[in-house]
Amino acid sequence: MFRRLLSFASFALLASAARYPSYGTLQTTNSSGVLNVVINNTFSSVNLFDEHVMSDLANLIETLQANDTDIHVVVFSSGNKDFFLDHFDVNYFFPGYASPLPIFDGGIPTMLFPVAILWNITQLPQATIAVIEGRARGVGNEFLMSCDMRFASTSPSVLLGQLETSFGSNPGAGGAMYLAQQIGRGRTFEYVLSSTDVDALTAEYIGWINCAFDTADALHAYVDALAKRIALFPLAGIAGTKQGINAASRPGLDVIVQDAQDVILRLEARPEVLAFTEKFLAATNNQSIGPVELNYGEEVPKLYN
Ligand SMILES: *[C@@H]1O[C@H](CO)[C@@H](O)[C@H](O)[C@H]1NC(C)=O
Ligand SMILES: *[C@@H]1O[C@H](CO)[C@@H](O)[C@H](O)[C@H]1NC(C)=O
Ligand SMILES: *[C@@H]1O[C@H](CO)[C@@H](O)[C@H](O)[C@H]1NC(C)=O
Ligand SMILES: *[C@@H]1O[C@H](CO)[C@@H](O)[C@H](O)[C@H]1NC(C)=O
Ligand SMILES: *[C@@H]1O[C@H](CO)[C@@H](O)[C@H](O)[C@H]1NC(C)=O
């Protein structure tokens, strides 16, 4: 399926400031060593993780990997009050879909491009923090798991989940593996196999997120202070500390490839997965804001009736 997409090769000649096309879905500001990144996919009412967001994230990663900025901490938040970052654009799986991005990553050839984006985020020398106001499901939650720290507001719009099992598929970028490390094996099976939504207080209680705050102000004030404090310290020390924590708490690259990514590549071609995906596209009016996108955990059993 992924092989159908356009090759990146033809874009290599256009190399200028940014390696991949820029779509403006990430608004960045920085001061005191902290880069604030607001994710706002203006091509989507649900902040879809689509080629626009992927392209902009890959460019951002390349900038941060160079270690030549003053940035020591990256804080990701959302410009969409209902969706921190939604699932993968499932149109990707259908014939005729074209993307300006490569299928597999140029630098990590065993990894699909979106999987490499998340892996690379875990590898960044900078500390990464997610500020969650809104839903994050599927790859949106896998993005959260690839950040070093997660903080949320207790707003009812915060709902976290891996919804892939309900499609007949699996979290292909390793989200369930990270969760198993983070919240334990039994709870990961419970939440991921049932493709349910977890609210902020539950997520805090089980350790899916670091902390939930009653107000947006308290959330932002806490994260701002934490980010500024970490940013005081030398980047090499932050990167070195991350290396050890990653080694102790993150699935390996080959494990993600074999037991998450290659599994989704196999499953996504199955007829029942494509049939459910078509049903989902119809029920969401092509992934637009509405009851199914907003309340997926509640709505998904109805799609099986
Ligand atoms: C941080 O801000 C400075 C000054 O506005 C700018 O020159 C620099 O490119 C920014 N860094 C990043 C990584 O966005
Ligand atoms: C940036 O730092 C990381 C972590 O220390 C290192 O692995 C990487 O090679 C560095 N990148 C460059 C371009 O120097
Ligand atoms: C996000 O983008 C929408 C347009 O899709 C715009 O109306 C909104 O103001 C943006 N939000 C932020 C915080 O930039
Ligand atoms: C991931 O990082 C590698 C370097 O380790 C780089 O070659 C590759 O282009 C990056 N890919 C993305 C999608 O960020
Ligand atoms: C659905 O949305 C995608 C973008 O996410 C677009 O490429 C596609 O053409 C749309 N399909 C329909 C049937 O509107």
UniProtKB/TrEMBL annotation:
Coiled coil: none
DNA damage recorded as keyword: no
Keyword terms: Signal
Keyword Cell membrane: no
Span of the signal peptide: 1-17
Superkingdom: Eukaryota
Stored Pfam families: ECH_1
Name of the protein: ClpP/crotonase-like domain-containing protein
